[in-house]
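Obj: model holo form, ligand = nicotinamide-adenine-dinucleotide.
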Amino acid sequence: MSDLYTQLVNNPIGKLVASNVGLPQPVKLDRWSPYASVVDGQALFGAAPGGRLLTAIAKVLAMVEVSTSTSLRTDLREACAAADLDAAVFNPEAPGEQRFKALVYDASGIKSSEQLAELRAFFGPSIRRVQPSGRVLVVGTPPENAGSPKEAAAQRALEGFVRSLGKELRYGATAQLVYVAPGAEDDITSTLRFLLAPKSAYVSGQVLRVTPAPDTPENPGALDWDLPLAGKVALVTGASRGIGAAIATVLARDGAHVVGLDVPALGDDLRDLMDELDGSAFELDITDVDAGEQLVTHLTAAHGGVDVVVHNAGITRDKTLGRMSADQWDLVIGINLTAEERLNDALLEAGTLRKGGRIVCVSSMNGIAGAAGQTNYATSKAGVIGMVEAMAPVVAKQGHTINAVAPGFIETAMTAAMPIGPREAGRRMNSVSQGGLPVDVAEAIAFFAKPVSGGLNGNVLRVCGQSLLGA
Amino acid sequence: MTQKLRRAAIVGGNRIPFARSNSTYAEASNQDMLAAALEGLVSRYGLEGERLGEVVAGAVLKHSRDRDLTRETVLGSRLSPETPAYDVQQACGTGLEAAILVANKVALGQIDVGIAGGVDTTSDAPISVNDDLRRILIDLNRQKTNAGRLRTLAGVRPGQLVPDFPRNAEPRTGLSMGEHQAITAARWGITRAAQDELTAASHTNLAAAYDRGFMNDLMQPYLGQERDQNLRPDSTVEKLAKLKPVFGGPDGTMTAGNSTPLSDGASTVLIASEEWAKEKGLPVLAYLSHAETAAVDYVGGDEGLLMAPAYAVPRMLARAGLTLEELDLYELHEAFAAQVLTTLAAWEDPVFAREKLGLDAAVGTVDRTKLNVNGGSLAAGHPFAATGGRIVASLAKELHARGGGKGLISVCAAGGQGVVAILESEGV
Ligand SMILES: NC(=O)c1ccc[n+]([C@@H]2O[C@H](COP(=O)([O-])OP(=O)(O)OC[C@H]3O[C@@H](n4cnc5c(N)ncnc54)[C@H](O)[C@@H]3O)[C@@H](O)[C@H]2O)c1
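Output (holo structure tokens):
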């Protein structure tokens, strides 16, 4: 791995030096391996009194077969019993030696600022029991769905709590907030699974919103969670290398037939990878005037349509604005934003995107935070977010979803080419003190791409290790 | 063949005060103590020269010379020597199991009257029972060389030299009962404070029972001991809080205060048919109406060693068509305060009900004001096999005195077992 710093501070002498001089201490993050358990350890499950998501959460915990503890409060125990979750007992007043890989908390019962005290009561005694690469999940009600301004304020307050926890947690542990809209209680499975699993290794301090899915599965436990994309066709643009190659690999791992797309100049690399993944290669410059038409024709002829579209192709042409040429501006906006809009229009119009389609766009942390020398790039990537938010209700009418993943500092050829100063800063200025891997972005995309992720629409998920930038 | 069942009546009981190990009864044998309790019962109910159907008793810690402990005790008593007897042994469930056995024969009409009892001494305990040490000594004897002998001796662990059988490990796990219960207590999040509170209540309730003369016709003095030696009438939560943990490590919650001490003592209960009692002009305090035993897999499974009563009681209630709340009094043997508390927690837990018992709802909640109202083993002490008889006699008397009702008895035992029963009384 190219991250020398992480290697260095993980050898005994380096570790000593780093801790003596107060350098951040990155740890090796747990990462997913196929057929591993979702949570490699125990979970502690709690709730503010009056929560509406207890049983729904308990069902997911039972389904992922994580050995779970709760306090002996009747509402929690009844929810566990109803979900057939054989939960053990955790009493903070007699805590014993218990350590947890995950803390899962239903905060939906919090209706006022006074009741926020429940957060401290639950997490105070348990937060130091979180193991390395542990997960803290707070689940609440979207403020926009709250029944009163006080409830809305209290639910919105959860964001500040979770983001701070993300920064306090150490050794690769992460914290997230999931807002579950009324009626979406049974649509949280894929979200909780993703956030609990090592698949979300480089995601922290994030907020996801789950809304009622058009196609909630009757029994999510009966689904094949190892091959969630079996029988699906997934298009990945810019698939020949970097993050795109990782996305193609992960979607193929999940059972999809991957159609990799890239410019003809990278055709050999693309074909090699697609051969490896049993996918198919499609050479195309997405800025071609008839790119949409070509794509529709190809996908229809070769695959009868497409189920998952991942807009990953993207470029940078960095220059401060005063020195930036019109070409540099146009190229970046054209590839990173306009081409995506056009392809979407074509696929949607022609009905090439099959029912229950999933569009996932790769935005960027810099599209949120902005970056000197990247007015063009940040404009395009912020535009991607705008497109996702605006298109979400449009595609929902056809039963599709559209979401964005915004990577932070990811270890790729692109970031390896950065000057050392900004590169090291990018790597360290986040809660896990290291850069992410292409696979981390790919896992987030695969999560949105799942057929059971119908409750996720219009979300922007940062995969940035809770970077300080734009947060 | 059809048979009409009779009700088995608890006529009364008699026990000697329980003493702490190696104290007042240090010189008394099991047979001495059982004989004393039996003699008192014979006197109280005028059984001199009577040929009873059967006397059933047992001891958990027995010398080999006590092979037929109960029959030998009968032969030494003023009962007719033609009274048959046999020994039973089911760890701490021995005393209650003996009462169930006698009651069953009465119910079936096989006998009209019998005595159930139990006795234990931890002072006069048979040392040879430490099998580990015995094996090591045999092995030592077999070794031909000094090096071999040294090797054998090097394998001796301090625990193996402790002759106390009751503190000895469960053979299959190597853990003592207290260590087992400490694990279960931690698993259920039982706090030190809750245990000390239950312990203080046990002492207070037993002291009050003595003060109001409740114990007068349930026991007789023995070797100068007039009350249970372990009883601390002035016991408080504050005093108990000062004790150091003895199980579960330095952060453990179980102390010498909220665990029963090793004790010596004996108890007996007179059980008969209603007709027999009427004929003799003796009262019927209560009937032994239901019983159940259960065992849990604490070795390969992950259930706690002393959790069997948590399973036995719901099973018995289902058979009896009763709910937990329909009972008027609850006698849960206090092997450890934590054992009682984990049992109560399990019954209140919908998850335990569903996952372990296969029930749709929690078993129920025990009203603490109805729990061990005349004290429990934490205050009285716990000579293993004598505890069942102590509880049966005092619960029968209390139910009777209250004008009737139903009472639960629950006793946990080594080996992952539990013996439970229901007494029903129609009152005076
Ligand atoms: N690497 C990071 O740290 C990082 C951070 C934030 C966002 N991103 C975004 O992730 C995506 C992938 O980045 P990467 O680091 O893997 O970059 P990369 O340059 O390695 O890969 C981009 C791919 O897109 C393809 N592509 C570019 N223009 C195309 C066009 N007109 N038609 C078809 N294909 C085209 C390229 O050929 C290439 O294979 C980009 O959208 C990038 O903006 C990367």
